[in-house]
Structure formats: structure tokens, C-alpha cells
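fyi for ur records
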Amino acid sequence: MKQLINIYKILADETRLRMIILLARNALCVCELSDILEISQPNISKNLSKLRDQDLVSSEKNDKFVLYKLKTGNDVLKREVNDILENLENYPQLMADQKRKSDNEKLLAPCCMRVKKKTIE
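which gave:
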């Protein structure tokens, strides 16, 4: 029962909910989340820590950056996230976050070196 309550506590926070929806679709670094959500990097890190404490995100080191992605093992979270994603048009802030990510993708990617470097031949 405690795990269920903790999931809904996580989802009840707007910043964490927005992060969860973004991380459900793409692995992102702290700087990308910060730019998309227009929230400071320390605030993003603090919220990621809470998600890690509940074992809801996984991380992967990529050079000097860490990429975070939502774990899919929690059935309650998976069901809630899928419902939100299927009805995204009902959530203007979440749609705006997705649009901001798409609009800024070229600017965001270089910050954590995720863009493939062009080779000169």
C-alpha cells in the first residue's frame, strides 16, 4: 500500500509529473529538463533524486553527462503515464513541454553531446 501512495505523491507534484511525462518518451539530461521546463538545474536534480528514491528512473552515463529515462517496471505508474500520453491534448502544460522539447531539440542536444559529430572526409 505504501508504494501505491508514494506513486501518487510523486504524480501529485507538477514538476515531477512534467518530468515523468518527458522521460517516458526520451532519455534526457538535467540540462535538457531544465531548459524544457524552465526550472533551475538544482531543482531538477532534487526532483530526480526523489524519482530515483522511488526507483522510477534509470540513469546512464554518457561522457560527462547522465541521461535519465523513466523505468517501465511499475504497473501503476505505467498505466497512469500511458493514460496521460493517450490524452495529452487534455493537458495544455504537458503539450507545451512536448512542443518546447521539439522546438529546442537542436539547441538542447549539443549541451550533453548527444548529436553525432559530422566527420570531414
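Confidence is low (pLDDT under 50) at residues 114-121. thats all i got for now
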